[in-house]
Write a structure and sequence with these properties.
heterodimer; A: 2 domains; 5 helices; elongated; B: mainly alpha; globular
Chain lengths: 173, 277
């Protein structure tokens, strides 16, 4: 067996293993999904369950407000997560990525606030990234601390009103 | 159709479709360069605290150097240059493997630096680019070339089947089939005019919802339908991704998944040669 043969078998073996691991991670076969995902630093194991089993049927809204030196709270301001749909967006949609990042972070916080202890989810990457982002937004007034809130609404033709899902503590700016 | 039994042709189709998608998403990344500053959502100072590797690890030091702001913008500009060299035909007289390796490495860096905001098209593009790199190491190695094509085809089929399988488990997709309307009704992934049009048309909503689940679940059959039967699945896939690009703004999915269709056709044609009937 020469070097070229070894290379060939190695590549074919790796592709076969990768495909098998991808299938295992979709269906959590033998409860091995977490084992593989823990080592997947480069997102090589895909998640193919798009919009399933429960599709996202609500819109999330991220709002924030500041507290000044006198402990007075300002009004809530919204950071838009959804962007307006245009025909050009089918080809060129640069806002999609940052909106998706914001949306992913918000959804993760909502999910983990229901399942984890406050001490755990408040030290998660999503929570810290969101606080860092909101605290760094340009402001006209001198805020001392900032707080954010996540709300949920029910689309263009809603059948019920929006509701609050999560409100953070005040964080020093 | 004979072209689709030519592996060189399949890899050329795969290459150009995936490069269109990657070019668009890379320029979109560059357009949003401010997102990578340390006071924005993709702050490396925050993301690097995940602590996958110890600080003394050589990988950590290299990653920290390349992924911190503003160095990461340099990585994206380098990726654009690589894409230009790959897209212009004939400019690269030697093996394209080093260029694909550069594309693979920058894709892995982008994935590593993005704990949120990535989607299925990024994952499929990474998969396709890695296979293109392996193929270009030695294009004459037909075993690797064929394994790569089968791998891409099966990943693509797995993606449709998984999406359909889990949709079939969701009430909004099967029992009360209104998922398509509910998704189109959101500002995040929908469109007000389309939602308005569908609002009181339950039969159209049911058809769109159930047909999505049905075709996705049955997608593995594409391998045994032969020509022209496979065109039903691939035509549906093309229409599905076009609609998602137009209505939902999912522009990069079209190119990432279209890049896999040549591989599916190849595998289908190869299998149909074995059918007796």
């Amino acid at each position: 067996m020469n070097l070229s043969d070894i290379f060939t078998y190695l590549i074919v073996g790796c592709l076969g293993f990768w495909l098998l691991a991808s299938a295992i991670c979709q269906f959590n076969i033998l409860h091995l999904e977490n084992f593989f995902r823990r080592m997947d630093y480069f997102s090589l194991l895909p998640r193919w369950s798009f919009f399933a089993p429960n599709p996202g049927v609500t819109d999330y809204h991220l709002l924030y407000r500041d507290k000044n030196q006198e402990n007075e709270c300002g009004r809530w301001r919204e950071l838009p997560i959804a962007s307006k749909r245009t025909l050009l967006g089918a080809v060129w949609n640069p806002k999609k990525r940052s909106k998706k990042a914001l949306s992913d972070a918000v959804q993760t916080i909502v999910r983990s606030s229901n399942t984890l202890k406050p001490s755990e989810f408040k030290t998660s990457i999503c929570y810290i990234a969101l606080v860092n982002f909101i605290a760094s937004l340009p402001r006209r007034t001198d805020g001392r601390a900032t707080q954010f809130m996540i709300m949920e609404s029910y689309g263009h033709y809603p059948d019920k009103g929006p509701k609050m899902l999560f409100r953070s503590e005040f964080h020093k700016i | 159709m004979e072209n689709f039994l030519n592996m060189e042709f399949i890899y050329a189709c795969m290459k150009y479709f995936v490069l269109v998608g990657i070019s668009i998403s890379t320029i979109e990344l560059l357009y949003n360069w401010r997102n990578f500053q340390d006071n924005r959502l993709y702050s490396w100072k925050v993301i690097s605290t995940r602590g996958y590797f110890s600080e003394n690890n050589i990988f950590h030091k290299l990653a920290h150097f390349l992924l911190k702001y503003p160095n990461f913008i340099g990585v994206i500009i380098f990726r654009v240059l690589v894409l230009v060299l790959l897209v212009i035909p004939g400019i690269w007289g030697f093996s394209q493997a080093p260029l694909f390796l550069a594309l693979v490495l920058t894709s892995l860096m982008i994935n590593y630096r993005s704990p949120f905001g990535q989607d299925g098209s990024d994952q499929m593009s990474t998969i396709v680019v890695i296979v293109l790199f392996l193929y270009h190491i030695n294009p004459d190695n037909t075993i690797v070339a064929q394994a790569g094509i089968w791998f891409i085809a099966l990943q693509s089929i797995l993606s449709y089947f998984t999406a359909g399988f889990f949709k079939a488990k969701g009430d909004k997709w099967t029992k009360n089939p209104n998922a398509v309307y509910l998704i189109f009704n959101t500002s995040t992934y929908g469109s007000k005019p389309i939602a308005g049009y569908l609002q009181n048309r339950q039969s159209a909503i049911t058809f769109l919802t159930w047909s999505t689940v049905a075709v996705e679940v049955m997608f593995p059959l594409v391998l045994v339908t032969g020509y022209p039967g496979m065109l039903v699945f691939l035509g549906w896939g093309l229409a599905f991704h076009l609609m998602n690009a137009l209505v939902m703004g999912l522009n990069s999915f079209l190119w990432a998944f279209l890049a896999t269709y040549g591989a599916i056709v190849y595998c289908c044609m190869q299998l149909s040669a074995y059918w007796i009937f």
